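Need residues for this backbone.
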């Protein structure tokens, strides 16, 4: 089992480069199934979610290799439409392959996907969207059988702008002759990036970034070399770390536009943020000001930054309030922050944080990806030593977080630990 040992109290200074976004790369990897030949993705993050997606693609017959940080996927030998059950449970994004496989083979068999336990995370909206395109879906022994023999272009209204359902429907519709229109689509930057990737490969999709996406399907997609957008959540996480630990950090390859809501709240807390092309710089204030945050679909404040900001609120002088509107179970990191001395009350979807007192190092455990990042942020600011177990959750979305933070001046090392270490 992995852990980070963190000695808090060192300020962060220097610069950090942000790789391609996990949530852009994963659906694009699924989309590569639609392309006959080679797809090259530049600057791919070396994280476990990408590794698991590669393994799933390999099982389906896609040949993948890494050349430096370029991920090469060759779909010439793809033959399978049945998702490997065990691997699919490792990450929620495996569900994106449903739309892509239907598009390519007219059928697919999948299991309910895995991922972090941050809420119920059903896939009813995905299935509803596919049914609207004529897919017949049956479930047996935990497997979902999708028959796309009557798949046709059509019009879909999503009851909620789900990111994954929007991407799945786009992928299913791209090979269908005729026009598919998705109403109440998610507007996240990663959806715009999927559209851009598919259009670079020869598709004709418009409207991503707005609530209506139009897919003129049936075009042949060709091999492509593509650079996905930079990871706004990784950038936001390191900005929060600098705001918590003190100091000044420059983010290179920063997706400033996609970070608007995060910048707004960090500025409201007293941070100075200077923006320039592809770069931003944050200087931490002497004291942080409390803030109100409410998560929403894009362009609202991202749920994936909620945990990190909640950790930061523990250090602000006064009472902050954080409302989680997207996932119903995203405060599971709070008991660990309390172990470090944080004063947080959680009632349903709302957390009230009485901040202002210095946190103390403790033995704590990451329980999901962003909650894990929040705990590391708290540990960086705390007095004394913390042991953060559960690094496998953090590794799902952050590439060698300990190396990135060490380069900024933090005192953090990765350790292998035994059960006895963990129990103190
Ligand atoms: C994606 C992101 C995740 C981010 C989330 C919201 C990826 C790989 N993951 O997840 O990091 O936190 O968007 O920005 O891109 N829902 C249903 N039924 C469905 C689908 C979703 O009820 O069929 C609910 C979910 O339980 C959740 C809400 O809708 O409460 C939002 O989920 P969704 O937008 O689909 O998020 P994901 O695509 O899973």
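Answer:
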């Amino acid at each position: 089992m992995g852990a980070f040992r963190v000695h808090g109290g060192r300020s962060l200074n220097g610069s950090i480069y942000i790789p391609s976004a996990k949530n852009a790369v994963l659906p694009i990897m699924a989309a590569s199934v639609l392309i006959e030949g080679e797809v090259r993705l530049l600057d791919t993050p070396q994280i476990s979610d990408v590794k698991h997606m590669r393994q799933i693609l390999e099982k389906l017959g896609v040949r993948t290799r890494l050349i430096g940080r370029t991920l090469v996927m060759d779909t010439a030998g793809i033959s399978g439409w049945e998702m490997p059950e065990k691997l699919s449970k490792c990450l929620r994004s495996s569900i994106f392959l449903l739309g892509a496989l239907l598009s390519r083979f007219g059928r697919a068999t999948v299991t309910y996907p895995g991922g972090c336990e941050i809420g119920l995370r059903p896939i009813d909206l995905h299935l509803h969207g596919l049914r609207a395109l004529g897919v017949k879906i049956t479930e047996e022994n935990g497997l979902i059988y999708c028959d796309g023999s009557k798949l046709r272009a059509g019009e879909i209204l999503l009851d909620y702008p789900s990111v994954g359902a929007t991407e799945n429907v786009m992928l299913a519709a791209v090979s269908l002759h005729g026009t598919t229109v998705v109403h109440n689509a998610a507007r996240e930057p990663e959806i715009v990036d999927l559209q851009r990737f598919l259009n670079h490969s020869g598709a004709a999709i418009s409207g991503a970034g707005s609530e209506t996406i139009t897919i003129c399907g049936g075009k042949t997609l060709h091999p492509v070399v593509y650079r996905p957008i930079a990871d706004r959540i990784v950038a936001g996480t390191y900005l929060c770390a600098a705001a918590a630990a003190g100091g000044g950090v420059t983010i290179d390859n920063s997706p400033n536009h996609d970070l608007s809501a995060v910048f707004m709240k960090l500025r409201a807390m007293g941070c100075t943020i200077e923006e320039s092309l592809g770069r931003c710089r944050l200087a931490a204030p002497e004291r942080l000001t409390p803030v109100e945050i409410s998560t929403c679909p894009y362009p609202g404040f991202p749920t994936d930054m909620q945990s990190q900001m909640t950790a930061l609120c523990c250090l602000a002088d006064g009472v902050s309030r954080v409302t989680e509107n997207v996932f119903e179970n995203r405060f599971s990191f709070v008991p660990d922050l309390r172990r470090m001395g944080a004063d947080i009350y959680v009632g349903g979807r709302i957390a009230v944080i009485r901040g202002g007192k210095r946190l103390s190092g403790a033995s704590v455990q990451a329980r999901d990806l962003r909650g894990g990042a929040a705990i590391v942020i708290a540990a960086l600011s705390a007095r004394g030593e913390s042991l953060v177990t559960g690094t496998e959750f953090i590794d799902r979305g952050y590439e060698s977080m300990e190396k990135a933070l060490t380069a900024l001046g933090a005192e953090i090392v990765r350790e292998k630990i035994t059960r006895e270490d963990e129990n103190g």
